[in-house]
Amino acid sequence: MIATPERRPRRWRRWLLLLALFGVALLAKGYWNATRDPLIRTASISVGDWPAGQSPLKLLLLSDIHVAGPDMPPGRLTRIVAKLNQLRPDLVLIAGDLVSEKSSATHIYSAAEVVAPLGKLRAPLGVVVAPGNHDHWFKPDALRGELERHGLRVLQNDAVKLGPLIVGGVDDNYSGHDDVPATLAAMERAGPGVPLLLTHSPDIIPDVERPVAAIFAGHTHCGQIRFPFVGALTYVSRYGNRFACGDMTDKGQRVFVGAGLGTSLLPLRYLTPPDAWLVTVGPQSSAAGTMPR
Q1: pLDDT in tens for each of the 293 residues of the chain?
Q2: Together in a domain, 179 and 141
Q3: Domain count, the chain
Q4: Phi, psi (degrees; rounded to nearest 5) at 101
Q5: b/e map 110-135, b = 16+ CB within 10 Å
Q6: 232: left (phi over 0), alpha (psi -120 to 50) or beta
Q7: Which domain holds residue 163?
Q8: Distance, CA of 122 to chain centre
Q9: Cα distances (angstroms) measured from residue 14 to each of 1, 17, 20, 25
Q10: Are 123 and 87 in contact (CB under 8 A)?
């Protein structure tokens, strides 16, 4: 039967309605993905000359928190922190981007509001933060002041000895504040210990001249928006997908890149759930994947 002119508009309206419903469902799923509780991914690192008598340590990596409305208000971050404390980490490493100024934000919070939930993190060796590009674009001095007021340590091309660990913090590469040689020199001055590097952008990895036990980073969001058969729209890295996501070894260097807790640009995630890494570092008998020092 040939469709009459009167029926054709009805058919198009039906298809437009179905397309609109699909679009709404897709956006709702992306927002749900972005606001779910983070997955806790686990890994272990063995160190050949781990100090005798020292128990293994649990390191918790957080990145790209991006506090802003609608998807990451301080209240949500407070709930996440309470659950992360149940993991009982020995040290918390935060790989930058505490804030977000995404155009879709319904609310931008003050430095005090952003940092207050992070002040509730609990770890015997403390909390170490390396700033990200959004932190520099926001109010870096205010953020640092609030972090230090809550007892969190900020490392900007500097290092600190924490128990058996020497933690170096490289400032943000994406905004041009990084100085890898200065960070490595600060680690040398800190004395003997198991070396770790914390950075927002993993793009500094090729500049690290000697291997460390592990490098912890974020920034890529693991793509944040990925589609089947297409992959991620972007990794925000000049190395493409070389340091895209997860637990990897790059030319002998162990690297962890988190997907982050929050979002950038749009409050949506597809095939890249929020995550945090709980990494156990210790002697060869308690962890796999030996890394030279």
Answers
A1: 455 555 566 788 888 877 878 778 889 999 999 999 999 999 999 999 999 999 999 999 999 999 999 999 999 999 999 999 999 999 999 999 999 877 778 999 999 999 999 999 999 999 999 999 999 999 999 999 999 999 999 999 999 999 999 999 999 999 999 999 999 999 999 999 999 999 999 999 999 999 999 999 999 999 999 989 888 888 899 999 999 999 999 999 999 999 999 999 999 999 999 999 999 999 987 544 444 33
A2: yes
A3: 2
A4: -120, 35
A5: ebebbbbbbeebebebbbbbbbbbbb
A6: beta
A7: 37-291
A8: 18
A9: 19, 5, 10, 17
A10: no
Whole-angstrom Cα distance, residue 9 to residue 246? 50
Question: What CATH number is associated with residue 181?
Answer: 3.60.21.10
Strand partners, 133: none
The answer to whether residues 90 and 171 belong to one domain is: yes
Q: What is the spatial distance between Cα 89 and Cα 251, in angstroms, rounded to a whole number?
A: 28
Name the token pair of 6.
């009167």
16 and 131 in a single domain? The answer is no
127-129/153-154 β-pairing: parallel
DSSP annotation string for 191-244: -SSEEEEEES-GGGGGG--S--SEEEE-SSGGGSBEETTTEES--S-TTTTTT-
Give the residue among 123, 118, 128, 97 at the shortest CA–CA distance from 221: 97
Question: What would the two tokens of residue 243 be?
Answer: 């340091």
Quote the pTM value. 0.92
